[in-house]
Design brief:
Elements: H1 4-23, H2 27-33, H3 38-45, H4 53-63, H5 67-78
Helix pairs in contact: 1-5, 2-3
Length: about 80
């Protein structure tokens, strides 16, 4: 059985990829913007590692959206509005 936390990590990874695609930003570029190693970013986006909250906030800032908006979009992937 998948936990909510596991579902959230998968949804967050997917949402970040969507945000990158919409902005024409590459994963390596995002890693540089948030000052982490590209391999570490890859691990976060492939759900091989849990993303620390400070990294989440830096990613939201780099994408030009609030952390709240990023989380709302992420949660919508888990619980679509009826």
């Amino acid at each position: 059985m998948t936990t909510y936390g596991e579902s959230l990590e998968v949804a967050l990874s997917t949402q970040i990829r969507v945000e990158l695609l919409e902005r024409g930003i590459g994963q390596k570029d995002l890693a540089e913007m948030v000052e982490i190693h590209p391999v570490t970013m890859s691990h976060y986006l492939k759900c091989k590692r849990s993303m620390p909250m400070p990294v989440f906030y830096r990613i939201a800032e780099a994408l030009g959206i609030s952390p709240k908006t990023l989380m709302e979009r992420t949660e919508a992937r888990i619980r679509p509005e009826a």
